[in-house]
Specification:
Mean pLDDT: 85
Radius of gyration: 22 Å
Number of helices: 15
Structural class: alpha/beta
Helix content: 40-55%
Strand content: 5-15%
């Protein structure tokens, strides 16, 4: 028997979110060198089919070779079956029935990892990621060469937004147990970007020289480009997440500022469309004002167009803000606006739970006492 892998998080916790995995085997033909282009990879696993993971997995399945296997896993098995059926309908319409046949639903993250060469995970937070990798690594996971005869290391790509410390601990556990290679690759772009395959990935690779592993980054980059449009190599393990937390801290603040600016301008009598046009052509423009504007009729496809349904929830924004604040405390960094922003998102979540975080505008509008208020945000 193999010795259990020593990791700092508890492997006994139940998996709190679904995992994605394929139960298919590798192609019987000679092994392909899948370190160069997307057309050469064979067996994939995808863990977590939430708001971001589901469209990312759809794009992945659409772009990998028809002969490749995709193993999916989510705690919600009905969601996994829905994914399989949706891919089957799309494949039949495109005359590519093989793609539907090359999808399997795995019962556990462990089973998925055992059978996959490349495993992508998109999970809500630190407890979920720790739980999933606790199941994967205990008992010790056999090297990929002992399970599916691959000529390269098993690769874990975690796209979840968690704290850098937890991610680095997981990376160390994967590497020290010879289970494969692990990178953190959180993304930015929201559900809209996930659907359109225009996400930006922030990549953190383990390092042996202080500058990151260039060969591993070169292997991971074309994989991420199947689901996004830009990959930024931020450095060693955890640095992708460091970049993500800095970006999302700014997003948390700019989202509130956009809502306040729109609310202010409308309260002063400005037309919302003209105001947005002015802001987006001036120094105040940002993603929240341009792509995710909280006023209906300004940003096509934004959650404001559908009563703030879908998108990036208030709860997830609050979670990311909390992770940024935790990291700042650990490193002695002052975040002057963080506490007030956290209070805002806590109050908004009480009233608008599950809504896109741009719903901050509606919360502010409801607290305003001005006269003629635009109802375009309703």
């Amino acid at each position: 028997m193999r010795a259990a892998v020593a990791i700092r998080f508890s492997p006994s916790r139940l998996c709190m979110i679904g995992n994605g995995g394929l139960t298919g085997t590798t192609m019987p033909a000679a092994r392909r060198d899948f370190s160069a282009t997307a057309s050469t990879w064979t067996t994939w696993g995808f863990i977590g089919l939430g708001r971001m993971g589901y469209p990312m997995a759809l794009n992945l399945r659409a772009k990998i070779p028809e002969s490749d296997n995709l193993i999916i896993h989510d705690q919600n098995r009905e969601l996994s079956q829905k994914f399989k059926e949706e891919v089957g309908i799309a494949a039949a319409g495109a005359g590519a029935k093989g793609k539907a046949n090359a999808i399997e639903v795995s019962d556990s993250p462990r089973e998925l990892a055992e059978k996959s060469e490349i495993i992508i995970s998109v999970l809500p937070g630190p407890p979920h990621v720790k739980s999933v990798f606790g199941h994967i690594l205990n008992p010790r996971l056999s090297p990929i060469s002992e399970t599916i005869s691959a000529e390269t290391d098993r690769l874990f790509i975690d796209c979840s937004t968690i704290d850098p410390t937890s991610s680095t601990e997981i990376a160390n556990a994967v590497h020290s147990s010879s289970s494969g290679r692990f990178v953190d690759a959180p993304m930015s772009g929201g559900v809209v970007g996930a659907r359109a395959s225009t996400l930006t990935f922030m990549l953190g690779c383990p390092t042996h020289n202080g500058n990151g592993d260039g060969k591993l980054a070169a292997r991971v980059t074309p994989i991420l480009q199947l689901m996004g449009s830009k990959v930024v190599h931020m450095g060693t393990s955890g640095m992708g997440l460091a970049g993500k937390l800095a970006n999302n801290y700014l997003l948390a603040i700019s989202n509130i500022a956009t809502a306040e600016a729109m609310n202010l301008g409308i309260g002063l009598g400005l037309d919302p469309v003209q105001l947005a046009d002015l802001i987006n052509g001036s120094s105040g423009q940002c993603w929240s004002s341009k792509v995710n504007n909280p006023i209906k009729g300004i940003s096509p496809g934004a959650p404001a167009e559908r009563d703030f349904e879908g998108g990036f929830s208030v709860g997830l924004m609050k979670k990311d803000l909390g992770l940024a604040m935790k990291a700042a405390r650990e490193h002695g960094v002052e975040l002057e606006l963080a506490r007030r922003a956290e209070d805002v998102y806590e109050d908004v979540e009480e009233e608008e739970r599950g809504k896109d975080f741009s719903v901050v505008y509606r919360w502010l509008e409801g607290r305003s006492t001005g006269g003629n208020r635009s109802r375009r945000g309703r």
